[in-house]
Amino acid sequence: MAETAEVGLDRTQVKKAVQALQAFLKTKSTGDSLFLDDTQQISLLFTLWKIPPKAQTIRIPLPHGQRSDTEEVCLFTRDEPNMTSDQTIRFYKKLLAEKGVKNITEVIPYKVLRTEYKPHEAKRRLLSNFDMFLSDDRVRRLLPSHLGKHFYLRKREPLCVNMLSKNLARDISRVIQGSYLKVTNKGSCCMARIAHAGMTADEVTENVEAAFQTVSTKLRTKGPVIKLVHIKTQMSVALPLYTSNLNHLTALDEDQKVTETAKQEAAAKKLAKKTKKTEDVKKSEGTGEEIPQLVPMGTPSKKPKLETPKKKQLEKAPTTAGGKKGRKPQNKMNKKGGKGESKGKRRVPKLK
Questions:
Q1: Residue 158: which residues within 8 A CB-CB, separation 6 or more?
Q2: Exposed/middle/buried for 17, CB within 10 Å: 0-12, 13-18, 19+?
């Protein structure tokens, strides 16, 4: 929990800011009537003390609907088995009429989205034609690859609805008339839409209080996190509603000290384990115990291929020398000597 339940907004301060914002919008309106343009959105701007470690999406239920009846809502549904695309559209329109849902203006099955809205320009046109998108929770995970990046850059991705719910009208109205806050881990500011220009001051004030309470209780951070809260429209300045007490800085400092001490204790434990290992090694060396070491395994030396033929020749040599009868081993020296004797006994011709 980020804030305690006791921390809240000053109702008089909120009402004064809302009335000032209404006076500003009255000066900008074209006619004499107040809030002639119902499409003007009123939003809450939250400024946090520190950047959250993880991104989070917070659903905000509001006591008064923050969308006008003129806004168009598109619903992405799954493809019903044994039905064509037109039959699927008629089936879900009939289902919505039976359940009493009147806020949805268009039904698009998944097959139609995958085929007819495949080009980039078709996706841009779809994004500009509707103010809000809903999706059946059974096909929610399949939509990002077919919608494109512009839906997510402009924060217009579809919100999930359980089409098998018994109270379908109540669930859809809560999603449409409620709001949501996207808390990112890339900055300390986030904004949520909580009203429109056609609402009264009391309705806007109640929505502001409900949104502040839900955001302060659902933020996944420890200690006081909300620093400032402002109310504004798209073209107006931000009017302050809430300013955090400076005593929260001491609480934040204490949290940082606790985290630092926890890190130091973990580092000290690691050092203690390392020193213990080194002491055990020294003790084992002092007692003379052999420490098992990893020694690379030597491959057995192969016998040279030349040894086997030499052995065979040596073994076969005596058999060849006197093995067969009638053959004598030739002696080179005898051969040479014979040749020498033959050369020495030359016949000289006799003289008559």
A1: 76, 133, 134, 135, 140, 143, 147, 151
A2: buried
| Separation between Cα atoms, residue 331 and residue 337, nearest integer Å | 10
Residue 93, classified by CB atoms within 10 Å of its CB into exposed (0-12), middle (13-18) or buried (19+), is: middle
Q: What integer pLDDT is reported at residue 67 of this predicted model? A: 81
CA 288 to chain centre: 54
CB atoms near residue 201 (< 10 Å): 15
CA–chain centroid gap for 30, Å, is 46
Beta carbons of 183 and 44 less than 8 angstroms apart: no
pLDDT of residue 93: 92
For residue 272 the two structure tokens come to 């203690």
The token pair that represents 210 in the structure block = 């409900």
Nearest-5° Cα angle at 219, 216 to 221: 115
Sheet arrangement for strand 41-48: 189-196, 41-48, 226-233, 239-243
Return the half-sphere exposure (C-beta side, CA atoms, 13 A cut-off) of residue 321.
7
Could you tell me if 218 and 230 are in contact, meaning their C-beta atoms sit under 8 angstroms apart? Answer: no
- The encoded tokens of residue 216 equal 């302060």
- C-alpha 127/C-alpha 122 separation (Å) is 9
**Are 181 and 229 in contact, with CB atoms under 8 Å apart?**
no
- Cα 137 to chain centroid, rounded: 20
**Conformational region of residue 120, where left means phi above 0, alpha means psi within -120 to 50, and beta covers everything else:** alpha
Q: Is the whole model's pTM more than 0.90, yes or no?
A: no
Question: Which three-class secondary structure state does DSSP give residue 231?
Answer: strand
- Per-residue pLDDT, 30: 54
Which residue stretches of the chain have pLDDT < 70?
1-7, 29-39, 222-223, 246-260, 283-352
First to last CA, the chain: 148
Cα-based distances in Å from 343 to 112, 348, 349: 115, 12, 16
SS3 101: coil
Per-residue CA distances from 295 to 233, 277, 288, 292, 299 (Å): 74, 21, 19, 9, 12
